[in-house]
Amino acid sequence: MRILVIGGVAAGASAATKARRTNEDAEIVLFEKGNYVSFANCGLPYYIGGVIEDRDELLLVTPELFKERFNIDVRINHEVTDIDSAAKTITVRNAEGESAEAYDKLIIATGGKPVALPIKGIDSDGVYHVFTVPDADAIVSKLELGMKRAVVVGGGFIGLESAENLRAKGLEVTVIEKLPQVMSNMDPEFSDVLIGELNDKGIQVLTGLGVSEITGEGKADGVILDNGARLEADMVIMAAGVRGSTELAEKAGCRLGETGGVWTDGNMRTSVSDIYAAGDMVESVNMLTGKKVRIPLAGSANKQGRVAGANAAGGNMQFKGVLGTAIIKVGELTAARTGLNAREAAQQGRASASLYAPGFSNATYYPDAEPMIIKLTVEKQSGLLLGAQAIGRKGVDKRIDVLATALYSHLSVFDLENLDLAYAPPFSSAKDPVIMGGMIAANMIRGELDYCLPQDIPALLARPSTVVLDVRTEEEWEDGHIEGAILLPVDELRSRYAELDPAKEYAVYCGVGYRAYNACLFLKAKGYRVKNISGGMRAINMSV
Amino acid sequence: MRILVIGGVAAGASAATKARRTNEDAEIVLFEKGNYVSFANCGLPYYIGGVIEDRDELLLVTPELFKERFNIDVRINHEVTDIDSAAKTITVRNAEGESAEAYDKLIIATGGKPVALPIKGIDSDGVYHVFTVPDADAIVSKLELGMKRAVVVGGGFIGLESAENLRAKGLEVTVIEKLPQVMSNMDPEFSDVLIGELNDKGIQVLTGLGVSEITGEGKADGVILDNGARLEADMVIMAAGVRGSTELAEKAGCRLGETGGVWTDGNMRTSVSDIYAAGDMVESVNMLTGKKVRIPLAGSANKQGRVAGANAAGGNMQFKGVLGTAIIKVGELTAARTGLNAREAAQQGRASASLYAPGFSNATYYPDAEPMIIKLTVEKQSGLLLGAQAIGRKGVDKRIDVLATALYSHLSVFDLENLDLAYAPPFSSAKDPVIMGGMIAANMIRGELDYCLPQDIPALLARPSTVVLDVRTEEEWEDGHIEGAILLPVDELRSRYAELDPAKEYAVYCGVGYRAYNACLFLKAKGYRVKNISGGMRAINMSV
Question: Can you list the positions of beta strands (E) in B230-367?
């Protein structure tokens, strides 16, 4: 059996080695158009910033090792230009010319490529992507010449990580993002926190602005924005997203799915017999909704490649899909998400409610407890967990992974409040933020109490029938409060509640939502109409 | 409605406040025999060590706050001495004398108390528990007098945490543990690592030895061990476990369960009508096995208290049970566990296999990646996850919480390998250690490859038909290898495998198990009988 693999980074390398482990007798050849296989592309921004000091760290596996350990014939600088699925051959081009290679099974792992904006100057010297080792090499060489100013186009993972790392090298950095927010897969308030952190690091962020031109005569010296403004720049990093490289699969006749990615079944088989596909250019199933999505991330690429390789070689494995789990470090902050936010839930026709669960990384009476904010999105009525977002300086990765595992398992908020997570003071609180989030959400779903979001406050204040009630202490009130709210500390509420007008509705807040929760239940029992402003001042200010 | 709560720490305080939130009109009285309510008992060792500097940090909530915020009448220094469940009254004793209090609903949260060993000198001055705020106060006062030597009796959570904190105060510390290992809820190899870490901190650990006497005339000056040896000590910390305080519940006629803890249903109702129970003296259901267990930990106590309080006040909530998740920090190490180990699985009649998944806290090409070892226990055939243990210096808490969530959800290894966890280089690897563990275990369950454990090596070496084969490099071999093994580096295996005797069975190891995995599959394809020694040298040496 002859197995050919096209593409040698995450999915292709995983596929080839898993094929070998599944079938010792197969002939396996891997074609990579670039100069490197199986490199750590997620590490490239950190190599640019010097966080990863040794370039060799990026090069996980060499062609020699593929040969010796796996008896896999890796051919770098070999570009596959065509696939004839009827003849079961591929056309390969390298420096010496073109040749045809026959296959019994073919695995396409062509990955993606950076979106190329159709603007003047895009091909100038000084314009870079952060996508391959040569990309990073070029940037590092350029930096050694003493760059002063960089513009990063795109406020997603690669854009923000690159911006931070260029700033660490001493450059003045501006991030340009066409959308109104960075990290468009999270809710806007999380973007605001990240922008604040970037600003604190001395990075300027301009949202809602596109780039219309890169200036300079063959050598970039600045960018012109949508609004006509011009920014000077010694270098321009293009990080406006990644597009799946589906062309080869299309030439083979592989069907594209509704997302524009290559369609596969759960065995990573394409619509064309004997052709498998894996990695950034395939579409996956969202395990929660059953709908097709395209989320090009390393974790999925590795898993898909492993499944494709096993099955191409005669095995029988399944890739179950994705949840859209993602994480980014920005300065000292971690922001992460999994599943659906309210907007995505609505697109799926799911009636959802979102709420904030502010917490701490570990017991507050133990040193170095850091605040975090978790935002849960849950299905109304059923209480099924639909998604989560979180931000903080410590322990966010843990909570999002727990929530991703809960999502995988279709847990509800009634499960979250019953999780048996590990508690000792250095690691968590007796009620972990995830469990606390479950408790808050379960209280809501059980109908104990209504919640609203900080984003609703302007509308609440505008409504004459509603009063925004602060139940914190006077000291906290004086340190800052919602303009237009009234103060009645929770610990005076039992003696003073008669001061409140039973004809009004009260939207109640405190520091993180706990005192307001108690105040609301008291007032509700006394006949008042109440809502808890979820997450209190912590969520209102998104202070982490 | 009059609700009485007996006990005011984790379960009792949670019960009382949840009862109030559930029923504003109930009269709620909480009786606590000690001087403090709702204190942070898990923080006591760290207060002794000065890690928690401010004593007030331990005192989470005061009686005054209970009154003002919750209208709960908290009576400290009030001991409940009897319950008459027919008359629905309790007998309460305080400094002024005894009185009877009537209840409509009663919540018993009497918790536990330290096991008192029946040995001479146990009541001497200088012998302490680490169980209450006054206990900690007494130890702190004693330390201020300039103590030199401490003996800690017991190598569980409180014993090890106390030992470390006393060492941090400059004392010579010896831990005595009657069992052959510390942390008896983990496998022995994890105990070995923890003992090594304690030794590195200058703490002596003696296992397999009990204490037969505490010496000194009314004032402890040492201990005599089972073997007759004597250790000098200025202070003796008794941390030989916690026994549930079931006496009051028994007086009320509440049935004890098979574990000796107070029996309750999922609503935390005891066998006696209108009496609920929560906390360290009740038994819980193990969510995985459905069997009753008694695991006195703060997380469960809080959750049980909340459920008992809600239901006593007219609500309807469920406590679903426990998984035995637990975690401890020892020096710079974190050790954690959840679910069942192989021994516990066997006790439940489950055929299990265990294997090691060595990994790193984050991508190894990113700074500060720390090694960790996860040990998974899975059901044979089905691949159902039964339990996990883990140890390392960073990120262990995250992995055990993910695995606890997987256990809660009855996931199998085929699910673990498909989890969509958050990956960016600072947080994980593209294949997180949990996912990698799932992949290894799934390969085993699918029958791709047989595994054995490092613990099997002596038996393997003793068997003439078996060869222990090291497939690492010569450099690694020279740095240390299994005595009696032979060397054939994996990358020379394809050209040299004919040197191996097809009549023998090969037990193969490498650094962490990955090269051995590839070597095994190659040799298996060539007709050899092979086994992978799970976890390789990392697990053999338990090096983290």
Answer: 230-232, 235-238, 242-244, 275-277, 284-285, 292-293, 326-330, 333-339, 352-360
